[in-house]
Design a protein that fits this description.
The protein has 460 residues and is of the alpha/beta class. It has 13 helices and 20 strands.
Length: 460
């Protein structure tokens, strides 16, 4: 029997775990990632620049990195970094990529065929549009954490962290450890929603003792910095001229509508917004993988079975594109996908499948406790920009709502800019109240016309 070749897209927790699992099952692995270093969005630390306390789960990363390094040395694995994948052809089980600096001339074209493909493309931050969110000094929560982890710097001197979900806590800690002041942490969900989400079926959290330890560490960090943590609060307007000068904060009801008379100004020079994550399902859609249904404004996820197999033959998916569950869930799903893609049926695979049941329960609680509520749309003003690439405001989208999908996009240009709807797509759909297909993008990465033309030449 010939050695199976498993190709993995993404070198974050899910991708690295998939690579290790496939290697342990005897497969040959090709790991493809758009970044310069292994680790993805979660492990983006710079070991020489950042505080070791910012390196969450670092020992696991070091272990996985060592496995990859050993496999590269032995020849059982190959690694493509700075690789912009622009096509995933499920019919031929081939991936097409351009290797080099993003949008630079002379990028090297690479085509790789495999017996199985694991999609571990992760997710990006979601920040709900707010009046003033385009001011300099406003970032996503993930960007604020990335600057702290990777470069040891902060967006501003006094940062307000706001949004929904437990991710706000490590973001606040990262900013503080990098030398910034966190003036407040605002969680949009109210106490009742948090208790309902996290308090139900407490026996399911028995295996999450590590998470509880993390939570206590973040709480201690807030106490040391005397940082208020307020539930049922959110930023509803950001103020400033040339950059952020203050933010308007209000108490929110259960549906995240601001309660009249509760608004107050908080002085700050930076705002970090994080309202969950959006899965990067572009490659999965191009490969023909089925995705689940979801109401307008909510993300869709790739459907998989117990072995992380998608609806497309030979294509597996793991990590945030199958459901937002954090690094622990991504590691488990990656191991299952890698081992299954390699054709393995070892005890390690069975053990990982059992462990995934626990991480699945944790992921469900995230949505129950911190899921986005419809009331956020009441924060918007007519001139609030929704599509930043094409400068499309709320009023323009509201006027076009009800038009056919293509007509709406052509009339407003929402979702047709450089990010191709990755930032605004869900918000536009939430305002329109219908699915507009803004997540069905055929081109996965920006390409020069000459590069695309060269790829289409006969025999190329």
């Amino acid at each position: 029997m010939s050695q199976r070749h498993v190709l993995i897209l993404g070198a974050g927790p899910a991708g690295l775990a998939a690579a290790r699992g496939a290697l342990e099952e005897g497969a040959r692995v090709t790991l493809v990632d758009e970044g310069e270093r292994l680790g993805g969005q979660f492990w983006r630390h710079h070991e020489q620049l950042t505080d070791p306390r910012l390196q969450h789960g670092w020992s696991r990363f070091v272990e996985l990195r060592g496995v990859i390094a050993g496999a590269l040395e032995s020849g059982s694995a190959s690694l493509l970094q700075r690789a912009a994948v622009w096509r995933v052809d499920a019919a031929s089980m081939r991936v097409h990529a351009l290797v080099g600096m993003a949008d630079a001339p002379g990028r090297r074209r690479v085509d790789v065929a495999a017996d199985a493909i694991v999609l571990a493309t992760g997710a990006h931050d979601r920040a709900l549009p707010i009046p003033g969110w385009t001011l300099p000094g406003v970032t996503t929560a993930g960007a604020a954490q990335s600057l702290a982890k990777r470069d040891g710097v902060t967006v501003g001197n006094r940062t307000l962290v706001a949004g929904a979900g437990p991710f706000l806590l490590p973001v606040a800690e990262s900013i503080a450890l990098a030398g910034g002041e966190v003036v407040e942490v605002l969680e949009a969900s109210r106490v009742r929603a948090l208790v309902r989400g996290w308090g139900a079926r407490p026996w399911e959290l028995v295996s999450a003792t590590g998470k509880l330890g993390e939570l206590s560490g973040y709480a201690a960090s807030l106490l040391r910095g005397r940082t208020p943590y307020r539930t049922g609060h959110g930023v509803v307007r950001i103020l400033g001229g040339r950059r952020v000068e203050a933010a308007v904060v209000a108490r929110l009801d259960h549906d995240w509508r601001p309660l009249p008379g509760t608004e107050r100004e908080v002085e700050c020079d930076a705002v970090a917004l994080g309202h969950g994550f959006v899965p990067r399902i572009d490659a999965a859609l191009q490969a023909g993988c089925a995705v689940g249904e979801a109401p307008p404004g909510e993300p869709r996820f790739v459907l998989v079975d117990s072995l992380q197999r998608t609806s497309a033959d030979g294509i597996f998916a793991a990590g945030e594109i199958t459901g937002i569950g954090g690094a622990d869930a991504a590691l488990v799903e990656g191991e299952i996908a890698g081992r299954a893609a390699a054709g393995g049926r070892s005890r390690s695979l069975d053990r990982a499948i059992r462990l995934r049941r626990r991480t699945d329960a944790f992921a469900r609680r995230l949505e129950d406790a911190h899921g986005i509520r419809d009331g956020w749309r009441t924060w918007l003003e007519d001139d609030t920009l929704i599509c930043r690439c094409e400068s499309v405001d709320t009023a323009t989208i509201v006027r076009a709502a009800g038009s056919a999908s293509r007509a709406m996009r052509l009339a407003t240009r929402a979702g047709l800019g450089a990010c191709q709807g990755r930032t605004c797509g869900l918000s536009v759909e939430a305002i329109c109240g219908e699915r507009l297909g803004l997540d069905a993008r055929p081109v996965l990465a920006p390409m020069r016309i000459g590069e695309l033309a060269a790829a289409a030449e006969p025999g190329s």
